[in-house]
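can u do me a favor
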C-alpha cells in the first residue's frame, strides 16, 4: 500500500470550525460502527423462523460481527498508524456499506453472516478515529473530541437496540441493513470531505506473521467464549478452540517480542498503566453488556411468568433510548472533569453509576420504569467511563502508536462483551422456570438476579484496576 496522500512528518493541527467538523464526522462514524453491534438484537429471536434455520445457526450473525470487529480493531489500528488514519477509516466505512447492501438483498444465512462480518470492520472506527483526532487536534478540543468519540461506544450499544426495534416493528428486517448502508455512505462522505489526510509513519512494514497469529489466536478464543454455551463448555470443539487459541496467542507473543517491526508493541502494551487500563475496559465491557442483553428479555417475557413485563419488541428495544440525550451531553462534562482532575476520576464516577444501575435491578425490576431508571444510570455511567479511558491510555503510549493502542483496548472491550454474552446466556439458559406458565422454556427470576450480581461484581472490580494504573508520567504528548 502506498502513502501518497497521507505521508509526511506530521499533520497540521486544526481549531475552530474545522476542528468541530472533524470531531463530528469521526463521532458520527464511531456511533454508526457501534450501532452495528446491536443492529439485530431485537430480531434475533424471530430470525430462525424468518430464515428457516436454527437459533444456533443464526447466533453466528452476532458471533461473526464480534470476531471480525475484534480482529479489525487490532489490525486496523496498526495499519492506520502506518498508512494513514483517514484511509483506514474510509476502508472500514466502505466495508460497512458493502456488507449492509449485501444484507439488505439476501435471505441466505451464509451471505448474511458474511454481511455481518463485513459490518464488523466498522468496530475499528473508534480506535482509528481517536488516533486521527490525536494527530489533527490539540489542547482542550482534543480531550473533548476524544471524550465524545469514545462515548459513542456505550451510546451505540444502547441506542442501537431502540432504533432497530423501531424499524423492526413497522418494516421488514431487511430495512435494518438498508438503513445502515445509507448512514454508512453519509459517514463516508463526511470523513472524505471534512477529515484531512493524517500522515502514516514512514518506513514501517506490516508484520504479516504477527497479523496471522493474532487473527488465529483471537478467533479461537472468541469462538470458544461466544459458542461455549451452544457447543457445551466441556465439548472438544470449545476446549479445542480455547486451548488452541491460547497456545497460538502465547506463541504470537513470543514472536512479537522478537520481531523487528511488531504488529503490537507488547512492551508498551504490558506496561502497568496500559495493561490495567485495558483490564478496566474489559471489565466495563462485561458489566455494561449484561444489562443490554437481560433488560429487553426481561421486558418481553410474558406477565404470566410472575415477573415478566409482557412488553413489545419496540418497547423492550427502547428502554435505553430516553437516556441517549444524556449520554450525548455527558462527554462534555467528562471532558471538563478530565481537564481539571484527570481521567481516573471520570472513570470512577462512571463505574459507580454503572454499579448503581445493577443495584436498582436487584432491588426492583417489576416495572418498565425500573428498567428505564437502571438503564439511565448505566448509559450515563458508561459515557463517563468511555469518555475518559482513551485519554488515560494515550497518556502512556507514543503518539505514533495511538491507533494501535486504542485498537488493542477495543479488543479487550470486545473480549469483555463476548464473555458477558456467553456468561449471561449460559445462566439464563441453565436456570429455567421449574413450574407454572413457561416452565422449561423461559429463564427463572433467579437467573436474572444472578446475572445482575455477576455483572455488579465485574463493575466493582473496575475500581481497583483503575487505581492500579498509577500516576506514571505521560509518554509523549500530554492530553
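np, heres the sequence
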Amino acid at each position: 500500500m502506498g502513502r501518497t496522500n497521507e505521508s509526511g512528518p506530521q499533520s497540521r493541527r486544526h481549531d475552530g470550525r474545522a476542528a468541530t467538523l472533524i470531531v463530528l464526522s469521526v463521532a458520527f462514524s464511531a456511533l454508526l460502527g457501534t450501532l452495528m453491534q446491536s443492529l439485530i438484537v431485537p430480531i434475533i429471536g424471530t430470525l430462525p423462523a424468518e430464515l428457516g434455520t436454527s437459533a444456533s445457526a443464526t447466533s453466528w450473525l452476532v458471533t461473526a460481527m464480534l470476531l471480525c470487529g475484534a480482529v479489525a480493531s487490532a489490525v486496523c489500528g496498526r495499519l492506520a498508524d502506518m498508512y494513514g488514519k483517514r484511509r483506514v477509516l474510509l476502508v472500514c466505512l466502505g466495508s460497512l456499506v458493502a456488507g449492509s447492501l449485501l444484507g439488505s438483498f439476501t435471505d441466505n444465512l451464509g451471505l448474511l453472516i458474511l454481511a455481518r462480518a463485513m459490518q464488523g470492520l466498522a468496530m475499528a472506527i473508534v480506535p482509528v478515529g481517536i488516533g486521527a483526532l490525536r494527530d489533527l487536534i490539540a489542547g482542550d478540543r482534543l480531550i473533548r473530541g476524544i471524550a465524545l468519540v469514545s462515548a459513542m461506544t456505550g451510546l451505540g450499544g444502547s441506542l442501537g437496540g431502540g432504533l432497530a426495534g423501531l424499524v423492526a416493528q413497522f418494516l421488514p428486517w431487511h430495512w435494518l441493513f438498508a438503513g445502515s448502508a445509507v448512514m454508512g455512505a453519509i459517514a463516508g462522505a463526511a470523513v472524505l470531505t471534512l477529515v484531512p489526510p493524517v500522515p502514516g509513519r514512514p518506513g514501517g512494514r506490516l508484520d504479516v506473521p504477527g497479523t496471522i497469529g493474532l487473527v488465529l489466536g483471537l478467533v479461537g478464543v472468541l469462538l470458544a467464549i461466544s459458542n461455549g454455551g451452544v457447543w457445551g463448555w466441556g465439548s472438544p470443539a470449545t476446549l479445542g478452540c480455547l486451548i488452541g487459541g491460547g497456545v497460538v496467542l502465547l506463541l504470537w507473543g513470543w514472536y512479537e517480542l522478537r520481531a523487528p517491526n511488531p504488529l503490537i508493541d507488547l512492551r508498551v502494551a504490558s506496561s502497568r498503566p496500559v495493561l490495567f487500563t485495558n483490564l478496566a475496559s474489559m471489565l466495563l465491557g462485561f458489566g455494561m453488556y449484561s444489562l443490554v442483553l437481560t433488560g429487553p428479555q426481561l421486558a418481553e417475557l410474558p406477565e404470566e411468568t410472575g415477573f415478566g413485563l409482557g412488553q413489545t419488541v419496540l418497547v423492550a428495544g427502547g428502554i435505553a433510548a430516553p437516556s441517549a440525550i444524556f449520554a450525548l451531553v455527558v462527554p462534555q462534562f467528562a471532558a471538563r472533569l478530565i481537564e481539571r482532575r484527570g481521567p481516573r476520576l471520570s472513570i470512577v464516577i462512571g463505574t459507580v453509576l454503572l454499579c448503581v444501575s445493577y443495584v436498582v435491578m436487584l432491588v426492583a425490576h417489576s416495572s418498565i420504569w425500573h428498567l428505564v431508571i437502571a438503564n439511565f444510570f448505566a448509559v450515563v455511567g458508561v459515557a463517563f467511563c468511555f469518555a475518559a479511558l482513551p485519554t488515560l491510555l494515550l497518556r502512556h503510549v507514543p503518539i505514533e502508536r495511538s491507533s494501535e493502542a486504542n485498537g488493542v483496548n477495543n479488543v479487550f472491550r470486545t473480549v469483555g462483551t463476548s464473555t458477558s454474552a456467553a456468561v449471561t446466556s449460559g445462566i439464563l439458559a441453565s436456570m429455567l422456570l421449574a413450574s407454572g406458565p413457561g416452565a422449561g422454556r423461559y429463564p427463572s427470576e433467579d437467573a436474572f438476579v444472578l446475572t445482575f450480581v455477576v455483572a455488579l461484581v465485574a463493575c466493582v472490580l473496575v475500581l481497583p484496576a483503575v487505581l492500579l494504573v498509577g500516576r506514571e508520567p505521560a509518554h509523549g504528548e500530554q492530553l
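The two ends are 31 Å apart (CA to CA). hope that helps!!
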